[in-house]
Structure formats: C-alpha cells, structure tokens
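Reader question, answered in our methods column.
A reader sent in the components of a multi-part assembly and asked whether the whole thing could be modeled at once rather than chain by chain. We filled in our standard form and ran it. Here is what they sent:
COMPLEX SIZE: two components
ENTRIES:
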Amino acid sequence: MQNQSPKGSTPSSVEFDEASFRRKLGAAIKLLLIFCTMYFTAAVIATREFKHIASIEILGMPLALYTGVLVFVVGLVVTRMCLNLDRKD
Amino acid sequence: MNLENPIAFWILVVSLLGVVYISWWGKKFTSTTTDFYVAGGKISPRLNGWAMFGDYCSAASFLGVAGAIALAGVDSWWVAIGFFGAWIFVLVALAGPLKSSGKFTVADVLVGRFGGRSLKFLAMFTTVVIGTLYLVPQIVGAGHLFQLLLGWDYMVTVVVSAIVMGLMVVLGGMMGTTYNQAVQGVILLVAMLLLFVMATVMYFGGNPFAIVSQAMTTVPPTEAVKVMAQVTVPPTPEGAYGPFVLAEAIRAGFANLPNALTPGIAVPDVWSQVSLVLGLLLGVAGLPHILIRFYTVKDAKDAKKGAEITIIGLAVFYIAVLFVGFATMMILYPQLIEMLQAGQRGRATNMAIPLLGMEMGGEVILGIVAAGAMAAMLSTAVGLLISMTTSLSHDVYAGVLRPNSTDRERLVFAKIGAVVLTVIALLASIWLKDQNVAILVAMCFGIAASTFAPVLILSVWWKGLTKEGVIAGLVVGLVVSLVFTFARFSAVPEIAGIRVLGNPALYGVPAALITIIVVSLLTKTTGNAREFMGLAHRN
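And here is the structure of the entire assembly that came back:
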C-alpha cells in the first residue's frame, strides 16, 4: 500500500506503536465477541422461528426474559473490562 | 385559550422556560465557533455522561419503547436492548480513537486521515440526511404530546414543537445544550422511575415482580383487539371497565392466545430481527449528534468515562421501561384496545406513557411525565441540530465555501442552517405522523449503521483503508439504506426481488462493508495511515 500524506490532513507527532495497536485491536475484538455472542443469541432466539427455545420456562419466567436481562449484565461487565484495560495502558 | 389539561400544561411551560433560561445562560460561554460546536472541549466526563444520556434518550426511548411494550409485549423490548447494546460497541470500538483523532465533527476523522474537500462534503451531506430524519420522530412525538395536553390540531402542535426546537439552537450553543441535556437526562430518568414506583405501589402491592406475573396472564392489546367482537364483559358500576376486568375476561375466553411475555409475536421473522438488532448495534457508531459529544471533553479517557456513566444510566432506564411498559398495558388495557379499534395505533404507542401518568396521578403526574418526554425530545432535537449545523458551518462553509470567513459569519450560517433543517424535518413529520417514534428512530439507526459506522470504525482500525473505499462505501451505504427506508414507509413489499425489511441495516451494512473493502483493496490512497493511527490510538 502506498502511504500518501494528503493535503489538509491532521499533522501528528505521535509515533505509531504497532505492538500496542495490535494489543488494543485484539482486546477490542475479544470484548466485542463476548458481547455480540450474547446479544445476537438473545435476539435470534426471541424470533418466531426459535420461539420454542425462548419460551422455555425457568422459575416460571420464559428464557427470553433472562437472556434480555443478561444482555444488560454482560454489557456492564464488558464496559468495566474495557475501562480496566485502559487503566493498565 | 382552551386547555384540556391546564395544570399539566403549566408544569410543562415552567420546565420549558427553565430549558430556555439554561440556553440563554449558556450563550455567555459561546463567543467563538469552538464554543458553539463543542463547548471548547471543557466539559467534565460526568457532566458529559449525563448529557449523552439526555441526548440519546429521545422520544423513542421515553415514549415509543414503553408504548410499544404496552401494546405488543416483551418483543418490543428488543428496541431498548439494541439501544443499549449500541453503546457497548461505541465504547469498545470508537470512543477513544474518535476523540483522539477528531476535533469537531465526524468529517474531521476522515479528513484527518485522507484530506480532501469531497470527503468533507460527503460527510456533511450524510450528517444532514441522518440528522434530519432523526429529527422527525422528535417532532412527531412532541406534536402528539402537545395535542394531548392542549387538544389542538396535530398540524398546529408540530409547528409549535418545531419552532421551540429551532429556537433552542439559535439561542445558545454547546455549553447551554450540554447543561440542558444533562438536566433533561436526570428529569427523564426520574420521571421513568417515578412511573415505575407509582405503578408498582398503586396497582401491584409494591412488588415489581407482580407486574411480570400479571403480564404472563395478559393477552397483549394487539392480539386482544382481534377477538374483541367476541368478548362480552359487564362494565363496572362507574360505567367503564376496571383496569384488570377486561384483561381477565379476554384471558378467560381465549386461553390459547399468547401473553405479554410470549416471544415471537411482534417480531416478524429471524431476518427482520437480525436487521433490526444489527442496525441498532452499529447505529450509534454512526450518529453524528452522539459522536460530537466525545469532542466536548479533554481526552480519550474522559470520553470513555463519560460513556460508562451513560451506559449505567441506560441499563437502569431500559430495565425500568420494561416494567413500566407491562404496567401500562395492564392499567390502560381498555383505553389501548379502544385506540387500536379506532385505528389510532400511532397515538396509542406514543401517548401511552403520558396517559399512564394521567391515570395514576392526574394532571400533576401527567405534567411531570410530559416534562420528561419533552426533555427527551428537546435535548435530542437540539443535539441533532447542533451536530448538523456544526457540520454545515465547519465542514462546508468554513472548510469549502468560504475558508476566510469570520467566526461571526460562520455562526450566522450555522443558525440559518438550523432554521432550514427544522422546516424540512417539520414537513416530513406531517407525512409520518402515524408512525411509532421508536420505529422511526430505529430506521435512522439503520441508515447510520450503513454509512458512518463502517467507515469510521475501519478508519481508526484498518491501515489498508483508502479514500476511494470510504467515498464508495458511504455512497453505497447511504443509497441502499435510503432506498429500503423509503420503500418501507411507502409500503413497497420488495425491490428487485429483495424483501423490504423493517430496518435497512441487513442490506445497507454488508453493502457498505463489501464496497469499502473491495474498493480499498483495488486502490492505494491510504492517506497518512501510520501517523493517523498513532494519533488515534495514543494512550
């Protein structure tokens, strides 16, 4: 790839650190994978095609309700993990 | 003046005057365009977190989602879950790099890496399209709310709502807007929690889980309305159905009908659901009025801290919304069915929450709820107008048309832009008056997810991205998502054999991503990738 410096772009004196970038990219992918797995699983089982799974009752409540609440819980955990990673950096 | 709910109306007027005062107060901090656009980058993370919460929780969150749950049950909660999930994506993938590499608008990030006027113009155009469409549900919601309070015609109320929204921007800048959004964020969270507590105490013996238990025996109004002709239930001595009488009569007569917790009723099929949740997940990463808030703080760490406060607030708010939605269904059951029978689905969805306030606490609670709803709509509308006018003024007027213009000329241009864009959104609000505001907002998320989201994420994470890839991806994503959005509102079932879904993201996002990647692999203008990445990912 050609590296052309365009006119009007932001000048920068910050050195690009490939190792740090790769570490951050890896961490971001892992965190998003954790969240997206929960998010899309919960979303898909709530559809008409998979409602027999979502309707399974646990302690008198359908599974869909638990998975919906779990999305919030996992989201909050991922948020904290993300900020903790920042602190380490 | 003939007012249908005078006490509620005056509570709303007082809260509106408070908002106008804060805007006017914020004006003294707005002497330069930097102050107008991003409050000089001097906002604290905590204040920014609350402002983002107020900015984000629009009419869709406050009125639309709870109203939709009240009509169709737990399936409608998915919009709220998506609204929440989007913030996790923004926090992890975009908040830090965006703050580190930009200054005022999303165009800054792209221009920072690639330079060029064409990108600035295209980014401005996309910002204005998304912002104007997003403004529509705020005006529709405000129009319905004023109609409920005043009993005026919808046409009059939407015009009044649009004028108030435009005036807020013309009066102040980002500092006043930030304080307004933060105060409004607190108001709407308190209003939602107040409804939750009142409903629980007054109707469910103080036990919130009793709301869920009752929901498990209640047929959602959208299903109940189909069998209403076969239902006979004696009215109570007051001459109207009690809150639970009709629901129990329907359940007794139709044991096989679904309940409010039955999944798969309001979600048509798996592809529609995937399209919706994909659009919601990526949408915030492409919403200019949210992204601009990351520029109002000092650095990337403060941007993320603010996002955490927003995320915690949203989790509390959207879980409360589920309970309030169920409670609304049961408490307003006869009224909701009546509105559905009268063909007023839009009104039933968007006004269920204010009506719940009226039912539980009379005009005073209606006034507080109306103030909360108006806060949600105003803060979002003003945030949208600020981001659009910033893009118009900074990216196009100062960046392309008149680079030597003075600060004052740019401010005047921004304020004229606010008026013009409000008028355009007002006309669209008249066309789309019967749509659920949550669905309208979800469509905007789909467009944002198909345009800015992939472009911005790849700009800060992929060194191989090229300027041509960005332009092609933005154009393709915008065209595909807009075509499917307007097809949906025009009730077109399919385009070239492709089914039109409830949200355009399932087509727009892959179309944009594939275009960006293929064009980038075929071209070479990667910009100052290394320097830009160094800046975006500095600690």
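What stands out: Residues 6-228+242-536 of chain B form a domain with the Sodium/glucose cotransporter fold (CATH 1.20.1730.10). Chain B touches chain A through 68 residues (CB under 8 Å).
Send us your own complexes using the same form.
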